[in-house]
Amino acid sequence: MAASVGLGMAACGSAEQSTSSGASGSAASGGTVKVGLLLPETKTTRYEQFDRPLLEANIKKLVPNAQIDYYNANQDATLQQTQVDTALTKGNTILVLDAVDSKAIQASVQKAHDAGVKVIAYDRLAQGPVDAYVSFDNYKVGQLQGQALVEAVGANASKGSIIMINGSPTDPNAGQFKAGAHSAIDGKLTIGKEYDTPNWDPNTANQETAAGITAIGAPNVVGVYSANDGMAAGAATAMKAANISVPLTGQDAQLDGVQRILVGTQTMSIYKPYEPEAAATAKIVAAFANGTSLTPSDVPTTATSGSGQKVPANLITPIVLTKTNIQDTVVKDGLYTVDQICTPTYADACKAAGLQ
Asked: DSSP string spanning 201-236?
């Protein structure tokens, strides 16, 4: 799923990055439950700042004897395959996997399955024999983004065209966001230029937006669809350089995205509360650790992967984030404090929005 240009936690390229050990004891068999947590990258700030700590805390709450081995692939699909091998060698019996490349990881998923290891696809649906999947309704995310852009462009729709900055072609979520966005945009807005952005890279998004503005002509750009806040940062920089101010979408409710919404350089984001996603994943980890069957509340629906498997799934509803509900969403849920959002640069905008 999403980081402003230059943002992101420091990356480490080793196959195994850290281990947090739990107490010995037993879920089902009297011993430590070894869980491998494999996240995809650090350019998107959410993974290190939110997903990892929330997943670790929720898993430890339900499975106190869990030993959690953490791996981050730094957007390297080959490294992630090596990390799965490492996890299997270490004896991890449950993998929580957010794939860098859903297709490239298929052989690793199969290898885990053949070894009797349970694989939970987290946030992105990996190909292969995945045992469960937890994410958000990604088609709905794109649809909400597209609807927001259509509404924000309004009467200007007939005066020009938009630029679409989609996510990475190796990320299955990106295709779902794109399809959802097109369902809302097609026939209502003219798409002048459209790009699929490798690795969700903000700098590439900046270059794509600049190229789109040049191709269409700055006066003829009426909006920019960005699939996430990281790329929206790059798009916003290109828009500022071209001296245009038009509606711009995002996703992930990154701090810089929230701040852009406050000052009007970004129209909206999609807030995906990470706590429910982590909690739902931890429930499935606990069921696998205890050898119990998944219940309809654990996986109320199914999703079909790119390799054709129907996977038990829990898809959480996303929330549109605008200037009007920052207090009732990201602040209320503890994602950010008012002080974190309302630095001196944004103080006036915060006051106008009722945050100070």
From this structure: -HHHHHHHHHHHHHHH-GGGEEEEEESSHHHHHHHH
| d(C-alpha 264, C-alpha 200), whole Å | 23
Q: Is the pLDDT of residue 26 over 60?
A: no
Chain-centroid distance of CA 144 in Å reads 15
Rounded to an integer, what distance in angstroms lies between the CA atom of residue 317 and that of residue 294?
20
Q: What is the pLDDT of residues 228-261, one digit of tens each?
A: 999 999 999 999 999 999 999 999 999 999 999 9
The span from the CA of 32 to the CA of 257, in Å, is 40
Under 8 Å between Cβ of 122 and 98:
yes
CA-closest candidate to residue 273, choices 238, 310, 319, 217: 319
The C-alpha R_g of the chain, in whole angstroms, comes to 21
Residue 236 to residues 89, 244, 336: CA-CA distances in angstroms? Answer: 45, 9, 22
Q: Are the CB atoms for 43 and 202 separated by under 8 Å?
A: yes
Q: Is the pLDDT of residue 307 over 70?
A: yes
Strand order in the sheet with 221-226: 191-196, 161-166, 221-226
For residue 302, the SS3 value is strand
Helix axes 255-263, 229-241, angle to 10 degrees: 40
